[in-house]
Specification:
Length: 154
């Protein structure tokens, strides 16, 4: 059965994911190291993991596989889940796939190196999360859930 895993730290689409999971009657695991208000939805499990680097990511990576969908912005976690056969989405609806995950990891590493080489440079962060990002995410989540359900059957 398909499970929707949400890497919940700084996830702007948790509520949207819950609505979609409920509509599809999917189990949803919202994984964090704390600070989340548990959902009253019986399909949603709030998983609180111990503090520590990448503990939530490890929890998800150990469980996600073929027929599941993972929502995360964490590229190393996405790589592990893609390798395990799960379908993986960013919060803006962009899919991590076997075809693009290597490039995503390389770009992440390059950007980390550039930031480390220029400690005085302006970081700035990413662009704000928009209504278009939210709509793109919802469309992509619907598509990936249907595909994951097919994966789980075959």
């Amino acid at each position: 059965m398909t499970t929707l895993y949400v890497d919940a730290d700084a996830c702007p689409v948790r509520a949207e994911a819950e609505r979609v999971a409920t509509r599809h009657r999917l189990r949803m695991a919202v994984v964090s190291n704390g600070g989340l208000r548990p959902s009253q939805n019986p399909l949603v499990e709030t998983v609180i993991v111990p503090d520590g680097p990448d503990v939530a990511d490890q929890w998800i990576a150990e469980r996600a596989g073929r027929g599941d969908v993972v929502i995360t912005a964490d590229i190393p976690l996405a790589a592990k889940c893609v390798e395990a056969g799960a379908r993986v989405l960013r919060h803006n609806g962009e899919a991590f796939t076997p075809a693009n995950i290597g490039q995503q990891l390389a770009m992440r590493d390059l950007m980390a190196d550039l930031r480390a080489a220029n400690p005085l440079g302006a970081g700035g962060g990413g662009k704000p999360f928009s209504k278009a990002d939210r709509a793109r995410f919802l469309d992509a989540l619907e598509r990936e859930i249907r595909a994951a359900q097919r994966d789980a059957q075959g």
